[in-house]
Amino acid sequence: MSADITRLATLLDDAARHATAVAQISATETLTLAQAYEIQKLSIDKRLARGERRVGMKMGFTSRAKMEQMGVSDLIWGRLTHAMLAEDGGSISKKRFVHPRCEPEVAFLLKKPLSGIVTPLQALNAVEAVAPALEIIDSRYQNFKFSLTDVVADNSSSSALTIGPWNSPHQALDNLGMMVTVNGRAQSFGSTAAILGDPLRSLVSAARLVAESGEVLEAGHIVMAGGATAAFELQVGMFVQLEVERLGRTSFSVLE
Ligand code: OOG
Ligand code: MG
After folding, report:
1. What pTM was estimated for this model as a whole?
2. Topology of domain 3-255, per CATH?
């Protein structure tokens, strides 16, 4: 059966809007990767039509820990809109999500456009600042299970993020300690080295991947480099904090 791209984009947009899980598309349809990205684009276009603004992109499966946790080993990306930005130190309502999880990342803020095949130095020259970031991922698929094309169509599980203080990117970023605490207790430890050996490599890959879809990373855009550790489930009452060595902290609380 040939996939109905428009219907699938509506299905995933509705699932995200109403926080209701749907069956994996791959259970009934065979999508190509290009079709999956087309569904992602159409579903995000629906958000933009409702007034959301594009603020950047996120990378996925840039660390072995994430690949192993989800059983997907290709780099993927998703589109970020302003409605996904949660206040640093603020609270999020669990009701907005199906089964949210959280993971420690770093975010880049661009000062110049970036697209195509670039060197790490060219990528760095496009960066205004770097910050600690927490990503809240939420698969719209039942049981948080998906294939590569399923997750790509579902905007790579993007749902929310917090960003801490912006720092100069002109420092070694390839082995900064990361610690996540939940209600003051250690939840996970990691290093930015887990992100492709250096999060800057994630930015290099981001530039290549958006170009494959005919897009550009714009000045002012945020790029999330990808989770450095496996993600953990969010529960009501959690106060989640990430501290990244030399970059600072970001946090949020989970309300009902
Ligand atoms: C897919 C998104 C992966 C990351 O940082 O690796 C991702 C998922 O795990 O649901 O955001
Ligand atoms: Mg992530």
Report:
1. 0.98
2. Fumarylacetoacetate hydrolase; domain 2 (3.90.850)
